[in-house]
Amino acid sequence: MSDLKNIVLNYVKNEYLEEGDDREVDFNTPLISGGIVDSFSMVSLKRFLENKYNIQIPDAKATPDAFDTVNNIAELLKEFNIQ
Amino acid sequence: MANMGPYENVKENFSWSISEKELGYHNGEILNIGEYCTDRLCRMGKKDKLALIWEGFGGDVKKYTFNDMRLLTNSIAHFLKGLGLEPGDRICLFMDKVPELYFGFLGILKMGGIAQPLFSAFGSDSLITRLEDAKTAAVITQKKHLQKVRNIVPQMPYMKHIIVVDDDGSKPLKEREIAFHMDQAERIEHFDIYPSKAETPSVLHYTSGTTGKPKGAQHVHYSLIAQYITAKYVLDLQENDIYWCTADPGWVTGTSYGIIGPWVNGMTQCVLDSGFKAETWYKFIEKYKITVWYSAPTAIRSLMKDGDEIVKKHDLSSLRHLCSVGEPLNAEAVIWSKKVFGLPFLDTYWQTETGCIVISNYPGMTVKPGSMGKPFPGIDATVLDLKTYEPIKKPGIVGLIALKPGWPSMMRTYWNNEITYKSKFKNGWYICGDRSSIDEEGYFWFVGRDDDVINTGGHLVGPFEIESALLEHEAVAESAVVGKPDPVNMEVVKAFITLKPGFQASKDLDLAIMNFIRKRLSPLAMPQEIEFVDSLPKTRSGKIMRRVLRAKEWGEEIGDVSTLENDM
Hints:
The complex is a heterodimer of chains A (83) and B (568).
Chain A: H1 2-16, H2 42-53, H3 70-78
Helix pairs in contact in A: 1-3
Chain B: H1 7-13, H2 16-23, H3 33-37, H4 39-46, E1 50-56, E2 61-65, H5 66-82, E3 90-94, H6 99-110, E4 114-117, H7 124-134, E5 138-141, H8 143-150, E6 161-164, E7 177-179, E8 201-207, E9 215-220, H9 223-233, E10 242-245, H10 252-264, E11 268-273, H11 278-288, E12 292-295, H12 297-305, H13 309-312, E13 321-324, H14 331-341, E14 345-349, E15 359-360, E16 374-375, E17 381-384, E18 399-403, E19 413-414, H15 418-423, E20 425-426, E21 429-438, E22 444-449, E23 454-456, E24 459-461, H16 463-470, E25 476-486, E26 490-499, H17 507-520, E27 529-532, H18 546-554
Parallel strand pairs in B: 1-11, 3-4, 3-5, 5-6, 6-7, 10-11, 10-12, 12-13, 13-14, 26-27
Antiparallel strand pairs in B: 1-2, 8-9, 9-19, 14-15, 15-16, 17-18, 18-21, 20-21, 21-22, 23-24, 25-26
Helix pairs in contact in B: 2-9, 5-6, 9-10
């Protein structure tokens, strides 16, 4: 599980933090409500997870809450038997 | 009782001079928006009234009175002048919704500069396009956005200063960069405010078009006359209101009604600088007892998606007036807001070029859910025939929304682009670029854009800018970008792409292209869907026919395809 979380965390840090943005981001950092990933960018994060784990996340499950932290994302992925 | 009386009475007796009189402005006098929003209010006895309650992510709160705002905008103006910046210089604000953005805007105006706010999520490509066009002399930004500016500094010899408002000294600043800490800056009691006149340029807001680069709509200080009275009448701002405009000042709503309108009316306004979350928004309203809320259909539909139960957990009884802007507000959203808040969101219509609300629903006027409402008193609006550009007299016929030029906040030109500016006028009417009909009672009903510009989440995105950026991706041979329907954002960007030899369509390439555009331009411009195709529909002269692709996305008739070169 921590491998999965690290993969997602690293992806978020590399893709969504601007160069020079030295904010600490961990498994519990709010991504959506914290303004790191906006609602438009969330689509690309969803696409990353779908590609990486070969799943389809229905729009109804891709809510700002479900994507708000790496921990929340890990919980969401559990529903797809990804741990 | 609402500020505005019965619509028909007000319309009949309205003149912009009412606004001038209330503001104490006389033709030919000095008129500076920065002064009218700060010093003037202090002279009126509001110096101890709260002007701004700001809350950042994590609950960090800052509060400023009108006197604080007067002094701090003086400090900023003094600092900018001290750097050698001069009246008429374009000074860009490239920040999140921090207090420095709001006060920086007014500080720039106080020293005679032209404020050029840009959305902080813009990538370097979007930034350079707009800074290059304006030959911007300085950028005020935050540490977190500094690298995007640094990436393009070598291309900007005209850029004299990059001002960083939150530099902590942890990393050395580079050439042309300088730190400025507003809250620690010396508070300047007396600053010689630039003696701007009505027609002195004030704000440069960039907006996207179908073709070519984004255009800088240039406004003047006289816009204040329209922004004051529309904020007073439409937003119904009253002495004890606590106002919240959710728009980012990188866009025109965030300046006309997130800075100028509320403060020239002496309002206390709240700003929430954090990402969207229904729970956070409702808590914010509850905590500060917001009374007037100006938001956008995308946000309202997102709140709708989160359901009614979460609304019931919060005491939102302070709310008394709700308005919406950015894209058509669907009837379902109006009905939902009435159900859960006890109030309908009133739709307002305007655009970067108009500077103020031009068609709207008003307090006390019967709301027809889904309608844009009626022209603001003082605005002569109609719909024009699509071919003859003559006003359509018959109700229910779709035409081009058009306004008779001459209202105070109308853009004065497109920066460096007088030809495009002039092309916006037909038969003496300013053409907004949208289509609507007017019913037998005078209500306007929005139909859609009259061009290929994409309205996503209330922001206009130009397909040409995205297509140009796509061509810079190593795999892309050709592209066409259109809007596709979306239940929350009205439209989202969809790209049709042909690949260069040696590249194959794949999920990974799809994501790589999405991220490429997101970083180069902005998250708004990122295609949310990419369709790899063998060829694009073109005319015989080789021009890509976006409308064919768009019609397919919207399930509409494709129309005349006699000039189509290839079959889709």
